[in-house]
Each structure stands twice: as structure tokens, then as C-alpha cells.
Amino acid sequence: MRLALLLFALPAFAQVTHQRLLNAEKEPGNWLTYSGNFAGHRFSPLKQINDQNVAKLTPAWVYQSNSLQKFETTPLVVDGVMYITEAPSHVTALDTRTGRTLWRYRRTMPDDVRVCCGQVNRGVAILGDMVYVGTIDSHLVALDSKTGAVRWDVAVADNKTGHSITVAPLAVKDKIIIGIAGGEYGIRGFLDAYDARTGKLAWRFWTVPAAGDPEAKTWAGDSYKRGSAATWVTGAYDPETNLLYWGTGNPGPDWNGEVRAGDNLYSDCLIALDLDTGKLKWHFQFTPHDVHDWDATEVPVLVNAEFRGQPRKLLLFPNRNAFYYVLDRTTGQFLLGKPYAKQTWAKGLDDSGRPIRIPGTSPTVEGTPVWPSVAGANNWYSPSYSPDTKYLYVAAREAGSIYYFGKADFKPGEQFNGGGFKAIPGEEDWGAIRAFRPATGEVAWEYKMFTPPYSGVLSTAGNLVFGATAEGQIFALNAATGKPLWRFQGGGTVRSNPISYMSDGKQYVAMTMGNSLYVFHLQ
Amino acid sequence: MFWLAPFLLFQLQQPLDIPAANPHTTAADIEQGRRLYMGRCAGCHGPTGDGGKGANLASPTLSRAAEDRALYRIIRYGIPDTEMPGSLMDSLELWQTAAFVRSLGRVAVTPVTGNAANGAQIFRTKGACLGCHAMGAEGGRTGPPLAGIGGRRSATHLRAKIENPAADVPHTFRLVTLTTKAGKTLRGIRLNEDTFSIQLRDFSGNPHSVWKDEIAQFSSEKKTNMPAYKGRLTEAELNDLVAYLANEKGAQ
């Protein structure tokens, strides 16, 4: 009898088809892909929790991770099951109503994993009846979504040479797109597509050239061989152009540009690739010859909107380098760029979007103070676009760093930094959630935070924006005005992005805080 | 749910085994460690390790790092609830940095010239330091406790702090004054602060926590209550006071 009731209570488990992913907005109760939809919106059409009742939001359940590493996962939710990753590369399936574990995938890691910034993971992708996870030892693993059993496991790269995977894969059509991390190890960056069913490599796009490629001329000597340009944050996809949009990371070594004179393509770029072939359609480089470690690894936000009176297919990109960019996503044409946080390194952008650098802002042996900080005006923390308010929401960081220049000796598997950084003494860093009018970059409202955040935002049809602080609070703001409406202290620095889903007719908001996953509802 | 049983037996991955003694201590390692130290550590600990905002490292023994493994962990992960951050270096670089830090303790330290016994008197009389600072069982609660300060901070740094304390106030000892919407004025040392609230300890030692939306006025016109002693004490008195504090190694 109990079993029968249980079966009755669970929703029908349907396969997660590409068609479902394409129409993610039509099933707002689920959260099917990293950013909620292919356009990178991180918007929930749910409105049971809204600006009128959010003050009563309270924890429904808490999941405590066994790992004390940073907990950066974006949960996916499909038909009553939540799939999360835990550091270093574990996958756990949870019941969305009770928080109880359904299955776990635990991976034994080799001792010689090399990472710059923690053995972290930002989430899974789901397609068909499989869940996909990239691992910190640089494998891509397909798991049975019902049991967690390994269906296939392919080596994407070698962890001994400083490659690792922290990014949530993106499942599109019949492919699993996976990026690589290792920008502090002088790797040769790439973006891969694997056959979702078999794990066979479909294509690889190298973000750093080989000898003889025209892009090699943008690197002095053979410096491209250690060029990095990692691809460690999940991109976006537009079915109409069939293009995949993905950000690339810093050139290697981070702070010593002398050994790699030139623009260093395709570091710090937005690349637009044909999904079927992996061929480059266009690219836009935000920070040519970067010497501050300003990876262009943010989530691209795809919006169709009027730009100077013309309806256009836009790509919005609040970059780590403190400039907000609007590109035409069909052609890559630069449309707009302006600072959205304090910056002291560029006078502005020229007509092509290229920064006009202020002299004396490069790292030095003695140290050069520059805004934004090494962590940037934003980082991998997701922005959000609401089709209701038509605002782009960004968690902005107001901070600078002192940048050091150092020698850069390359040895495979060792950090290849060429310098370092530290905080500027006596400076009071701060942060803000800002609502932008996408086509102009004007700030509609700002909500100030005491320190710069390490987390992204979610907007919902309930006229809400959810964000979080470095001091462990999640909060909700009125999406139209920025007025604070609710907050909760979760007890640990928040390093993730919120989502929302529905289970048994109730809306939930989920976000990791410290080493726990909190799930909130209206009691 | 029998099929969950295997997971209950699952062992957590053990942290990688860190050797107790530094395996990388050649001259080349120390030289590489020096380079790393200059970029990452010298800003707070000083180029010669005699401290500043950070602890004095030019000491044969380090109170928090008796063995190399502890030093490695501190460089890697930082010290919670202090301003010492962790670092992104790989294990070789961490060991090399640790090797250089150890080498700092083998360098002769500039001798302190003042009279420590005289300094102890100034500390208790003319300096009136106990009004705010605890020294073991005696003293106030407004400033940082000073028992064992000579083991943590160098004479150079102590002198700079006494002469001009406002130059760099630790974030947990900042002076704040606020008035609530209910008309209550609170003044004290900030213990903690975030976007929504602030915690402080008043000069009677009582803790207060206030939501920021209940604050009518917030002022932090002065960062510290500590006066600058340059000019208040003679050069000789300053030397003596520094000598007293630099030799204050705390209860053994």
C-alpha cells in the first residue's frame, strides 16, 4: 500500500529530450540546464513566491555536504529529483520535497590533481536518461539518471599537466559540451563536444593556436604553447543561429605579459561556434593581451531587444574587466561597452570595442594598484535577465588589487602565473546587485552590499531577485525597485547561484551557502 | 532501503598526506621561496619578515607553526578569523615559501635598545596603556590584548603602531558610533559587520547587535580611540616602551 502511494505521488519520469531543454520555460517546475534556459537567463517563470509573500520564506530542508571544499553547484531539477555535485566531483540525487538522498556517485581522485582555486564543481547536465559530470581529474562521466551507475567515462585531458574540470557541462541536441580549467598551469585551452550516447569526441575547438595557424601571430615566439585560455564557465546556445556562445579565460602566464607580446587569441574572448561542427563563426576579444587575469568566463545572456530603434539579437556580457558589453550575436559586431563598476585600467573602448589602456597599469615587481581586483567586477557568478522587468541583474564587485609582475618559468603541471596579487591596504571593498537596462547599460537601481559577493543572482516572475553575500546571507529584492524584502543567514560564505523549482505544487528556491544546500519555501 | 547501505560504509577521502618536515629546503628552494614570499607575503610580514600588519616571522620559533607541516597548512589555508589569507600556490611552491620563512628566523634580528623595566612602568603610568589593553589578568577590553605581543610582532612594527595607530587599524578593533532610530547612541569597538547588521562591544565590555535598518545615524569619524604617542612620550620613553613590549613573550 505504501509503495503504491509512493509511486502515485512521484511524477512520471519522462526522458529529458533536447526538445524539452529548448522549451525549458514551458516546464517552470523543473530547472533543466545550468542557467535555466539555453539563453543564459537564470530566470524562473514561477510566481507562487512573490514580492507580496517572500517575507515569509523559510527553510524547507537543508542538505549538508560531506565535503568542506567550496560548494559551487547549481542544482538541476527534473520531475521531482534534484541532481547536485559536491566537491571534488561527486554527484548526489536528492528528493526535491524531503531533501533525502536517492543515490550517490562517488569518485576516487588521484593524489596529483592540480587546481588553482579549490577542487570545486558547478553542476551537472542532463539529457535523455543520463546525467553528465566533468571531474576534477579531467574526465567526462555519464551516469544513469535513475541509479548513478556509470554508463561511460572518457578522459578529456591529463590531470598531471594541470588540466581539471569544474564547469557544468551543457547538453545540446545530441552533444555534451564541456570546457576545461587550468588557466594557471599554461595548458592549451579547448572546448569539447562529445556524443551524448557514446562519449565519442564529436569535435574540439582549440582556444589557443598551433604553429602555422594565423592566430599564432598574436603570440610572441612560441608563447602560444602555454597560452591557457581555459573554458571553465558554462556558455549559452541559440537554436536559431545554431551557435554556441562560450567565454574563454586568461592567457598564460597571468601577470607577466612580456613573454607573450601580442593580442593572445583566443584568450579573454567570447567565441561563437557552430554547434554541429565546432567551427568558429566569430569571436570578440574583450581584453587583448590581458595582464590582470581577467578571464572572460561569465555566462553570456542572449536577449532579443531593440537596440537604437532596431530589433536585434543581442548578447549581453558583464565582463570581469569591469566593462559591460552588448554584441550582435549573429555577427559578433560590437554595439556597446561601458564600465559598470570602478575601473582604472582603460580610458574607455574604441569604436570596435577595443580597450584604450591607461599607461602604467601593468603589474610590476613592486606592485601596481588597479581596479577591478583580480577576482574582477564580476566572475563566474551568474547574471540574470527577467523578460518581465526587462532588466539584466548583475552581482557587481567594487574592489581593486595590487598586481605583481614575476618571472614565468614553465614546467608542465606547475603553476604558471608570472606574478601575483594582493588586496589594496586600507581600501574598503564593497558590492552591489545592479539592475541594468540591457540596450544602454544604464543602471535602473542598485542594492548595496557590505563586501563584494562571490555568488550570482536569480530573477523570478514573482517580481523578485535573489542574491547572496560573502557573509552568508541569501536575500530577496523587489525586481522592479531593488527594495529588500527578505533575508536569511545561512552561516557560511555563499559561492554559488540560486535556482527555483516546483514540487507537488509548491515553489522552492535553492542555493548552496557555506557547505550546505538550503531549500526555501512558504510554509 | 537496503541499497543505500553500501553508501553508509563509504569512507570520506582522506586529506593528502602532508609530510611533517619540509621536503624542499635546498638553497634553490629557499631562493624560489624568497621570490614567492616577496610577491605574496612581504606586504604584511615585511621584506625581512620582521612583521607589520602580519606576524613577525624573523623568529627561530613560530608560535602557530612549531613544525613545518603546520607552517605549510597556514600558508595554504590561512588562519581563520585573522587577516591571514590562504594561498593558491601548488605544494612545491608552498614548501619553498615555508623554507624561506624558516630561513628568516635564522637571520640576526636588530637588537632593541630601550630599557624594558622602565618601559613596563611607562606602560602602567604615563602611557596609561592598561586603560584599553589587557596584559594578562590586568587591563581593559577596548584594544587588542598584549600578552605575548613580543612573540607575534617585531619591535619595528610595535613602534610604528604606538607612534601612529590610526595608520592601519585591525578590522575587528575599529571604533564605531551609531544612533538608533529609537534614539539610543552606541559607541564601541566593531566586532563584526555585514550588509544587514553590525556587532560592537561598548566601553563597559557589553556586546550589542543592531540591524542596520534600525540605525538612524552611523558615524566612524575616527578609526581608533588610541592616541598617537609620538610627541606624548619622549624618544627614550618610546624606546623603553617598545623594549618592554618586544620582550613580552607571555606566560610560558
Folded structure, characterized:
The complex is a heterodimer of chains A (523) and B (252). By secondary structure, chain A is mainly beta. Chain A is built from 2 helices and 38 strands. In chain A, strands 1-32-33-34-35 form a 5-stranded mixed sheet, with no helix packed on it. The longest helix of chain A has 8 residues, at 2-9. Chain A starts with a helix and ends with a strand. Chain B folds into 3 domains: 27-104, Cytochrome c-like domain (Cytochrome Bc1 Complex, Chain D, domain 2); 116-168 and 226-246, Cytochrome Bc1 Complex, Chain D, domain 2 (Orthogonal Bundle), CATH 1.10.760.10; 175-219, Roll (SH3 type barrels). Chain B has helices spanning 5-8, 27-40, 42-45, 68-77, 91-104, 116-124, 149-152, 155-163, 235-246; strands at 134-135, 138-139, 175-180, 185-193, 197-202, 207-211, 215-219. In chain B, the strands form 2 sheets. Chain B has a 5-stranded antiparallel sheet with strand order 6-5-4-3-7, with no helix packed on it. In chain B, helix 2 (27-40) packs across helix 5 (91-104), helix 4 (68-77) crosses helix 5 (91-104) and helix 8 (155-163) crosses helix 9. Chain B is globular, with a radius of gyration of 22 Å. Chain A binds chain B through residues 66, 88, 101, 104, 106, 108-109, 111, 114, 116-117, 184, 367, 402, 404, 406-407, 414-415, 419-420, 422, 425-426, 448-451, 469, 471-473, 475, 487, and chain B through 4, 7, 10, 12-13, 16, 35-36, 39-40, 43, 53, 88-90, 92-93, 168, 193-196.
Layout of secondary structure:
The complex is a heterodimer of chains A (523) and B (252).
Chain A: H1 2-9, H2 18-22, E1 43-44, E2 57-64, E3 76-78, E4 81-86, E5 90-95, E6 101-105, E7 125-127, E8 130-134, E9 139-144, E10 150-155, E11 170-172, E12 175-179, E13 190-195, E14 201-206, E15 236-238, E16 243-247, E17 269-274, E18 280-285, E19 301-307, E20 310-318, E21 323-328, E22 334-339, E23 346-349, E24 355-357, E25 368-370, E26 384-385, E27 392-398, E28 401-405, E29 419-423, E30 430-437, E31 442-449, E32 458-460, E33 464-468, E34 473-478, E35 484-489, E36 499-503, E37 506-513, E38 516-522
Parallel strand pairs in A: 1-32
Antiparallel strand pairs in A: 2-38, 3-4, 4-5, 5-6, 7-8, 8-9, 9-10, 11-12, 12-13, 13-14, 15-16, 16-17, 17-18, 19-20, 20-21, 21-22, 23-24, 25-28, 26-27, 27-30, 28-29, 30-31, 32-33, 33-34, 34-35, 36-37, 37-38
Chain B: H1 5-8, H2 27-40, H3 42-45, H4 68-77, H5 91-104, H6 116-124, E1 134-135, E2 138-139, H7 149-152, H8 155-163, E3 175-180, E4 185-193, E5 197-202, E6 207-211, E7 215-219, H9 235-246
Antiparallel strand pairs in B: 1-2, 3-4, 3-7, 4-5, 5-6
